[in-house]
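U., I forgot to send this yesterday:
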Amino acid sequence: MDYTGGHRPPDKRQRRRCVILSVIFVLVIMITLAVTLTLTLRHNTDQLKPIFIDRCKKFSRNDCEKIWDVFKQAYVGKDPCEVPMEAYDPLIAAAPFKPHCNRMMFWSKTKNLVHKFTEKRDCFLTLEDMLLGSVLDGLTWCGKEGSSETFTTGCPGWSECENNPVRSFWNRASAALADVACGDVTAMLNGSITTPFSPTSVFASIEVKRFNATKMKRLNVVLVTQTNAVTNCTNASLKDLRKELDKGIKYNCTEVTEFQIEECSNHPEKPCGSCW
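Result:
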């Protein structure tokens, strides 16, 4: 036979060798991807506990390992959209909120401002300044059915399903904090929106409903305003707030500019009472 250019076509052994090498190459790629995915998932499941424990240890006299174990029992191995508020009851029992009469600060749509204030002034405490709130602030977590791991990615968002682990925790923790509210309580609300007391907010739907007149004397609303304020203390939603309060709890509302609060934050020598 005549072979063009003097080259023979590959025989069967050469073709077989090429096929084997191709299969080996594909297997190496698949194994590499599998190892990478495994390491990524393990990283995602291992990173929450160290953060939790480290933050917890900043609060003295706590068995942080025990609190972690109780915490993860609320959601591990469960559908991430089927973790109700009640799943965190054992956690609240293991690390209960303590009453701080006349120093408790609630907020709605003012998170950044209120925390800038409490970071510099120790006269008020928010949920996020207390053990469980501080430990889990800004974090995401969930479990998966059939898994004993904690995941920090691929979890449902706040509004994706009502009973997701993060939303249920904050709702339960907010309820627990409101249950121990006592004395004069302060709430910092946003005066730059048309409905500062929104019925869908955690403050309206959970916290206010649990304020108890046998423990709490007064609710002082600090309505934070900007230069172009769109609401004031006569806002209709604030009238609804007053109606929602347990009978016997007194109510007061003060309009305060954001600039005034920031100025007071930067001058710790001033009494907190003078901030508004």
